[in-house]
Design a protein that fits this description.
Layout: H1 22-28, H2 35-50, E1 54-58, H3 64-70, H4 75-83, H5 85-89, H6 92-106, E2 113-118, H7 121-129, E3 135-138, H8 148-153, E4 159-162, H9 171-178, E5 188-194, H10 200-207, E6 211-224, H11 228-240, E7 253-263, H12 272-277
Bound molecules: S-adenosylmethionine.
Length: about 280
């Protein structure tokens, strides 16, 4: 049975820090988990819009958003790959060796440098070992300052991305990251945030760094609820935030807003809705 967190959301902590992502994909596929797939074209368009050479994914897990950014693969390809019978039989070490080659064959020549931050040390180690993360750090910036290495390596990041992470991380993590980034040229931040969580705290903290946050008018689905209890908790949470659950959480799905934060002189171009819908 899937455990429940105090906010009513099903807890998947047991799949976040395995030696490889097989359980992650096996467990989430039945929920039609799809926020990395929803984000893939949006993040690619955002990379082009800000001409990013270096992207930091926060709550990067096994390097999923990095895989979708730097390789010619879809989330469905990843679901199929990790469920493949031959792949299912491999030891974690052999899988790492096989996946390194699998991702290398699919890497796009124009891919940006991809970096990742997550508390899950095994997941980050996998992402680094298979070459999805050029740099990866298992650190918790909710509770402490970044290491010297993380601080050094993120100084030239052009874009920060996040899916499935707001709620786990807050403005505390963004504050500690932005303390290490050049105030005269801060990176853009592209975030998919569940409607059950406010983004205001992060947006306010980014505003203090000179970034203007815009919200898309449309939402995208993240995954199906795993139970009626989970749905009821989510519907209550969005209503408490003054939002209408009709057509979204009411239909059985978690939905996300898309937020894009960029320096004032670049805000509005291209419009956030164009980046979301293409
Ligand atoms: C729902 S998963 C999202 C993973 C991935 N971004 C995706 O969309 O599939 C949430 C992730 O947040 C990570 N996480 C939880 N608390 C964190 C923290 N304080 N700092 C960084 N990552 C954290 C978990 O380890 C997990 O990998």
């Amino acid at each position: 049975m899937t455990p429940t967190r105090t906010d009513g959301k099903a807890g998947f902590d047991h799949i976040y820090d395995e030696p490889d992502p097989r359980d992650y994909f096996r467990t989430l596929r039945p929920t039609e988990y799809q926020i990395p797939a929803q984000a893939q074209p949006v993040f690619r368009r955002t990379v082009d819009a800000c001409d990013a050479g270096s992207v930091l994914d926060v709550c990067c897990s096994y390097g999923i958003n990095s895989a979708l950014l730097r390789c010619d693969v879809t989330l469905d390809d990843l679901y199929d790959h990790y469920a493949d019978d031959d792949v299912a039989e491999l030891s974690p070490d052999r899988l790492v060796a096989a996946d390194r080659a699998w991702f290398a064959e699919r890497t796009r020549p124009e891919a940006p440098r991809t970096l990742g931050l997550d508390v899950a040390s095994n997941a980050v180690a996998y992402g680094r070992a298979v070459g999805l993360l050029d740099g990866g750090w298992a650190e918790d910036l909710e509770s402490g300052d970044p290491s010297a290495d993380l601080s050094d390596q993120i100084a030239d990041v052009d874009l920060v991305t996040i899916t499935g992470g707001i709620g786990y991380v807050s403005e505390r993590t963004f504050d500690r990251l932005f303390d290490q980034m050049p105030p005269e040229q801060p990176p853009w931040v592209a975030a998919f945030c569940l409607r059950t969580y406010p983004y205001d705290g992060v947006a306010e903290s980014l505003a203090q760094r000179g970034l203007v946050t815009e919200q898309s008018s449309a939402t995208v689905p993240q995954r199906r609820f795993v139970s009626v209890d989970e749905q009821n908790a989510a519907v209550e949470a969005v209503r408490e935030r003054g939002l209408d659950s009709a057509g979204r959480e009411d239909t059985g799905w978690y939905h996300c807003d898309f937020f894009l934060s960029r320096p004032e002189q670049q805000a509005g171009t291209p419009p956030v809705d164009d980046l979301l819908t293409g």
